[in-house]
Structure formats: structure tokens, C-alpha cells
Amino acid sequence: MFRATIAVRSVCLISPEMLREMGVRGLLLDIDNTLTTHDNPVPAPGVENWVARMKAAGIALRLVSNNHPPRVEPFARRLGIPCICEGKKPLSSGFRRAMEDMALPKGTLCVVGDQIYTDILGANWFRVKSIYVPPMELEKTTFFRFKRLMEKPFLPKKYDVEESR
User: Fold this and answer.
1) What does the pLDDT look like over 99-108, one tens digit per residue?
2) Residue 1 lies in a domain
3) 165 in a structural domain
4) What domain range includes position 121?
5) SS3 letters across the chain
6) Backbone phi, then psi, for 122, in 5-degree steps?
7) CA angle, 92 as apex, 88 and 93 as ends, to 5°?
8) Which own/partner contact pairs does 64-73 have at CB distance under 8 Å and 24+ positions apart?
9) Backbone Cα Rg of the chain
10) Is residue 160 part of a domain?
11) CATH number at residue 122
12) How confident is the model over 50-101, as pLDDT tens digits?
């Protein structure tokens, strides 16, 4: 229930070839600590090139975030990716809206994110594949520090992709 399909050290290590092998044609992407640090309006180094590579390979992309439009929409515009705000992860409604928007079968979708209890659990409840990436930075609030502590037993013991192939 809390395990990802695969785990990689960085979103930028996800390749179109890897996704083809998994049967994935669409990615449902988390933002904070997956594509950039928490509340940062600028994508992490390499993310914009990675997005361009995914688009060139025909991989459909949607941002699915629990955050509000003022945070999500400018980031989505910068990357040129449609978004679902207030996605209510781990519940399925945001993932379902993204799937309908992408017009792809559920079996071809994959959630990418850094949180076990929202991204990975949500993907499993929605019955789609998932890729876990470790958070880019550890949040400072007590709530997030507690949540990260509670995730520890479910974190991957090894990564399927550690560096570029």
C-alpha cells in the first residue's frame, strides 16, 4: 500500500525509455520537493530540460498538487504543463481529473512524487504505477518533520536508478 513501483534518486533520472518499458504514456507530477524545493517558484536545475525531453518523447504531463492556484499555476505556466490544484492527494479526485484531461487509460499513467502518504499511497489507491523520488530538502515545520519520520519504514531500501544510464 505504501510502496512505489520504482524509486529513483531524482526526477531527472526518469527517461522516456524507462517509461516505455513500464508502459507509461502519462506522468502525474508532484511539485514541492519533487520538481523544486518547497514553495520555490523556480524549477530545480535540470527540470526544465527534463520536461522538454519528456514532451519531445510524447509523454503527457500534468502537475497534480495539493497546493492552491497562486502557488501551482505560475509554476505550471513556467513549465508549460497543465495543472490540477487542490488535488486532495491521497484521494483520487485530482488524479482522476488529470487522467480525464489527458484522455489516457489508467494503466498508462504513473504518479511521481516525494511523499509516501500523499503521492505513493494516492497512486496505489488509484491503482496506477508510481515513482518515488526523495525530497530535495527536508521541510522545517514540525508537521512535515513528523510526517517524514512516519514515512521512514516505507522508504525504499535501494533505488532502481541512482544515476544517469
Assistant:
1) 999 999 999 9
2) no
3) no
4) 6-154
5) CCCCCEEECCHHHCCHHHHHHHCCCEEEECCECCCECCCCCCCCCCHHHHHHHHHHCCCEEEEECCCCHHHHHHHHHHHCCCEECCCCCCCCHHHHHHHHHHCCCHHHEEEEECCHHHHHHHHHHHCCEEEECCCCCCCCCHHHHHHHHHHHHHCCCCCCECCCC
6) -60, -45
7) 65
8) 64/28, 64/29, 64/30, 64/89, 64/94, 64/95, 64/98, 64/111, 65/30, 65/31, 65/32, 65/94, 66/94, 66/118, 67/31, 67/32, 71/31, 71/39, 72/31
9) 14
10) no
11) 3.40.50.1000
12) 999 999 999 999 999 999 999 999 999 999 999 999 999 999 999 999 999 9
Partner residues linked to 109 by β-bridges:
26
Task: Look up the pTM and report it.
Answer: 0.92
Question: Could you give the number of structural domains in the chain?
Answer: 1
- Domain membership flag for residue 135: yes
Residue 46 φ then ψ, to 5°: 90, -20
Q: What is the rounded CA–CA span in Å between residue 125 and residue 34?
A: 20
**Backbone φ and ψ of 136, nearest 5°:** -65, -30
C-alpha cell at 123: 497512486
Distance CA 138, CA 158 (A): 19
